[in-house]
Amino acid sequence: MKSKILKICALCAVPFVVATASACGGTQIGENKSYYLQDDGLYPAVAAPYEEESRAAISRWESASASERDDVAKEVAAELYAYACYNEEYADKYVYFSSQTGSTDLGSSGSGDVTTQNYKLIIHQGANTPGYKYHYTLKKVNEAAGTINTFRNLFESARLRFVEDTNKLYRFEGDNIRYGTDESGADTDILTCDWETGSDWGTDDPPIVKREDKLDLAGIESDIIALSEDGEAVIHGNVNILADNIVKSATITEGEFDGHAVYEIVMELDPEVASADPASAAMLANANSAEECGWVNDEEGNGPTITFQIWDNGLMKYYKIDETWEGRIKVAILSYSGGADTETEVWYSYSDRDTDMEDKLAMLEDAKTARG
Question: What is the value of pTM for the model shown?
Answer without folding.
Answer: 0.91
